[in-house]
């Protein structure tokens, strides 16, 4: 399939068929950000949620100065929680330190777990150590997916002094939590991490044991 011109993509974004609009957004993958973002903005208010969702994600990948304020506004004001979650995720892709405060606000103030989950993941993507206290609080939630995100994010920001807290999940009945723990410990080099990884490498769930083995290998290679 030959690459579409900008004019053809712009025309396709105005198609009454939502599939055409999705394909047009996908066609922007190879287009420079400064040319892609004005076209992406045209469908941010699309009537079809999948089109809006894809457009929001695209703003996190096609990075210009316009993207950050647009994504923050969507995160803070959009009535659809799925779009707010998408905006939180896209802010993590932007890797802009300014996103720290909006993401923290979203974690504390949004009532939807999906938005809070995306905010926690993105706080890890920012790799900002200031997120440590928020993520430690997230461990105390009743929602397993948020606990998973917080454990992974604490590993991403390399919060070595949080090892004792996340090791409380080493016997979690949720294998995904144990897997995230095994992955996170690979970024947190302490003797306790190594001991826990040896324990998790014998986990009954293969994805947990594999993650622990890989993390152990990574820590040993960094010795």
Automatic annotation (TrEMBL):
<dbReference type="InterPro" id="IPR016024">
    <property type="entry name" value="ARM-type_fold"/>
</dbReference>
<dbReference type="InterPro" id="IPR011989">
    <property type="entry name" value="ARM-like"/>
</dbReference>
<dbReference type="Pfam" id="PF13646">
    <property type="entry name" value="HEAT_2"/>
</dbReference>
<dbReference type="GO" id="GO:0016829">
    <property type="term" value="F:lyase activity"/>
</dbReference>
<dbReference type="GO" id="GO:0016491">
    <property type="term" value="F:oxidoreductase activity"/>
</dbReference>
<keyword id="KW-0456">Lyase</keyword>
<keyword id="KW-0605">Phycobilisome</keyword>
<dbReference type="InterPro" id="IPR004155">
    <property type="entry name" value="PBS_lyase_HEAT"/>
</dbReference>
<protein>
    <submittedName>
        <fullName>PBS lyase HEAT domain protein repeat-containing protein</fullName>
    </submittedName>
</protein>
<keyword id="KW-0042">Antenna complex</keyword>
<dbReference type="GO" id="GO:0030089">
    <property type="term" value="C:phycobilisome"/>
</dbReference>
